[in-house]
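Weekly structure sync - notes
Attendees: PM, LS, DV (DV joined late)
Agenda: review two folding runs queued last week.

Item 1: First target. Sequence and structure tokens pasted below for the record.
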Amino acid sequence: MSITNELVAHHTTLRQLYAQSEIDPKAFDEFTRHLIVHHTMEEKYFYDILKVIPEAEHDALEAVNEHHIIEMIIKDAGRKYSGRPGCAESVSDRQARK
């Protein structure tokens, strides 16, 4: 299977994990791990290729910008749940330890 097919198939997993995290904040950590890996792979293997195609360059740059916004939302959500009993460690806390 190609990386493109894998990324498209992974969208289903992301939707399921997101739905779980809305019900159970503990699932948010797993959702964010998948989301970070997913958008990193999109940027590395998909959008970088699109950037060199003149007709697709604008869309690729817009998608990378949207990913930056997603990262900011993840950090905000991680702060929201950070320190609450029974909630997963925030993404920003985990990244600070690296």
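Item 2: Second target, run right after the first with the same settings.
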Amino acid sequence: MEETVFIVLGDHGQFDVRFKVHLNNLLKEHGLIEETAFGYAWRAYFQSTGGAAYLHVKDDEEIKTRALAIVNDIVVDPKYGVKHMQPMVIQRNKTTTAVTSLLRVKT
């Protein structure tokens, strides 16, 4: 034991969290995510990771407009703790538009 060296590593960092926002609940409150007998049906949803969130929207202009209006409300309301909204990069496949690098939370 005298010559044993312990090295502790992590695969990611941590940061203090002062705000807890359930982004998909906001979309659900606005009718963009619905509970069904089989789970959830979505027209827009957030994928969050590492203090950022990515918005995925079904390929529908009205839904995209509604979802982005919700995002704009989140950004200007200090209770959500959004530091900034990065420029949107639109990626499309046959049914979904992904608006990436969208929200960054305050730390």
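Discussion on item 2: Residues 23-105 form one domain.
Action: LS to circulate a short write-up before next sync.
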